[in-house]
């Protein structure tokens, strides 16, 4: 047998009955009515009204067949029970049994050649009478054509058995509603075969109790009549009484006393029959819903393969050979049961019959037929390609199926919102699980694993078996097995469902849906209270944990002005979340604009930046994780404020665990948050001075946990710690005869200004290259030099360093780098003092200024003398810093112990300034900081806000301050 043949779906094997194919799924189609059958009412479905259609669609269970046989034998005059009670739950086959008895006795001639009926006894002509408690009124009675109303069960039965003649024998008792004597009924029944069918008698008795009859009531008279009738029927050789009672107090409208009384009246005489029991209900359903069950060879193969799936699954839980042997026996039994339940999985029938059977709203056989007919119709229309219809196959997104489901289990209002939020709604949580599994395993996408498992759990959520609510993992796994769907996938999917669904509860290792929200719902509600700013702040906190505390990073600048310029270090700019929503073209355009401009000013240091661009998918994951983490923290904080019960403590522990999971989700998303780097490089096409090169960052995920390190690893071929001495000299221009010197700071600035030069991480690497070049004699260095006209002059040629090793701390970049030829010139001539002028300024505290003229470098060097202390002042056009240093410190005669910094900045750079102060604080043993802040606004400062936000915190920190508000 080919695999294609083996895997044939049930929709290509069976043929549903015409009522299913036509979509005729009304309750009446599956709710049999003896009254409609007797009256041959056109509204009665033909499958019940027509005797031949009825038996063709009826599976004769062992119990039903025995009931028919026993009744027919008794009608023939054989020995046997003549008073039979049908006592099963609603929908358990009572009415179906009564209709079977009616047709087999009333229409036997129409039932020739129906194999299952041929061997049944034939008593010949039988008078048949019926009474249905729901049909008759206790006050107005029953209207009969061409006859006065009939008021009582005895009057109506007599009229059916013998017409006006029989009725006239007890007309007075009927009109006065008093039970007739036994002799009257012996005359009416006589020696001919009579079948009396009474259904739902308890309902009529309940109504009749309200009608007064002398010192008695109508209901008591009915009970007396039934007691007398059973005694008379027992005496007569060819009369049989078959009647039904509800099986429980709940089904008797709570009148336990009446049910008990009625039962005791006849219990001495009747024999109780249960028309449907055990696995026979499967065959009842199979025969009623399908006109052709299909090729038995295919069904056998499906049963074999499904049992094999079951065996392999259950053996994955087994530890011993004995357990494996038991599992094999269970698999063999499953295969046998599939043969009689096909195309339904036996577990589906079992859960409805046994679990739903405990529900007061469920009607066993009738309810199963109605619900399964709706499910079969919906799946047939959808061309379902499964082997079997399982608990996980039920399409709850179909309104017909959903309505049939709630008709049987009740709780429609309570569970409608549960279905919408978790299973069937446009944004149902289960769709997240379906999509996740489909992405990981595309071959399983058609199974919709999350929906499959959730549907099965919902089916198992109603009723109990053995007192246990819900369903175990093994049970749900067995019920939902399909080719390709293994235990690992199901277990993972169940875990995802626990995390995603809002009403799925997992208690005592059992899954079930409840109207009460689980923690996921509480978390979801709390998530709605978390603001977007709080989410971004949480992500930024986690991001900063992955970045070292260094100056060479700029995190989430709001605009280009927030990225400092003229900073002699290579900076990584981590663009903020909104960039993840931009197209690549827009990202390139905006990043290039930020590179070229800093607010309204042109940016000078264009070779000192790299832009790192966030990934939208990972940013969304980070947002989700952050929002969830913040929501959970909020819930934990609320629960910690009050005394918790044991249940609340369990919830608290679960919340703590979920908080860790959410934080891990943020960390994982932040680790993958940035996708690529945009790096400025020369535009060789000549269209623009600079272009932005995209450098992949995702390939660096395994190199380091530290994001900054991963970025730098990705830029290894673009950004360097240092450069060779020869290359530095070449870039300085000192090899040209037209250029003999350059200020060190100016050369350093080249590396950060021009994208045509190599990108350097910082100044230290460049300084190392300069020191190496000095050592190798490629350039010279002097800290002080005077330029007069075109002639550079050095006061003390001994300060020139050339072909020697000098300590790094003696290299002052405000000094001059010299070509070898200029070094030789300066050493060969005696320096002369030029244009030295000493001035005194009383306002400068008798400080004497020595001002030297400026050279080609555009820099000015000033020498001050105050109280015999000489200082050197440096100011370069390329730098925003003015530096003053004692000459003795410059010449190495004295160590520096005191440093004073005066600075002025705006609010955009205040935090960078604080980073600088932090670096200074790390080196200094003591610091005194004086800050003057001048703040202004076009609106107005709130005086209370000033006091609460500014002044009180300063006071609490014991920081001296004076303020002025104007």
Q: Report mean pLDDT, rounded to a whole number.
A: 84
Instruction: Find the count of extended strands (DSSP E, 2+ residues).
Output: 33
Class computed from helices, strands and strand pairing:
alpha+beta
In angstroms, what separates the terminal alpha carbons?
A: 96 Å
**C-alpha Rg (nearest Å):** 48 Å
General shape: elongated
User: Proportion of β residues?
Assistant: 5-15%
| Secondary structure: helix percent | 40-55%
Oligomer: single chain
Largest sheet: 5 strands, parallel
Strand order of the largest sheet: 3-6-9-2-10
Q: Count the DSSP helices.
A: 39
Low-confidence stretches: 1-5, 247-254, 831-868
Q: Which features does this protein show?
A:
46% helix, alpha+beta, 966 residues, five-stranded mixed β-sheet, disordered N terminus, 39 helices, five-stranded parallel β-sheet
What report would you give on this structure?
The chain has 966 residues and is of the alpha+beta class. 46% of the residues lie in helices and 13% in strands.
Provide a compact summary of the structure.
This protein has 966 residues and is of the alpha+beta class. The chain contains 39 helices and 33 strands.
Task: Detail the topology: elements first, then pairings.
Elements: H1 3-6, E1 15-16, H2 18-21, H3 27-30, H4 34-39, H5 46-49, H6 51-56, H7 62-76, E2 83-86, H8 94-106, H9 115-118, E3 127-132, E4 142-144, E5 147-150, H10 153-168, H11 171-176, H12 182-189, E6 194-199, H13 201-208, E7 212-213, E8 216-217, H14 218-235, E9 239-244, H15 256-267, E10 271-273, H16 280-289, E11 290-292, H17 296-315, H18 321-341, H19 346-355, H20 364-381, H21 399-409, H22 412-424, H23 430-440, H24 449-460, E12 471-472, H25 473-480, H26 487-500, E13 504-507, E14 510-513, H27 519-527, H28 532-545, E15 553-555, E16 571-574, H29 584-596, E17 597-598, E18 601-602, E19 609-614, H30 616-640, H31 646-671, E20 674-682, E21 690-696, H32 707-714, E22 719-720, H33 725-732, E23 741-743, H34 744-753, E24 759-760, H35 763-775, E25 780-782, E26 786-788, E27 791-793, E28 816-818, H36 820-828, E29 839-841, E30 847-851, E31 860-866, E32 869-875, E33 882-886, H37 887-890, H38 910-923, H39 943-956
Parallel strand pairs: 2-9, 2-10, 3-6, 6-9, 15-16, 16-19, 22-24
Antiparallel strand pairs: 1-11, 4-5, 7-8, 12-14, 13-14, 17-18, 19-20, 20-21, 23-28, 25-28, 26-27, 29-30, 30-31, 31-32, 32-33
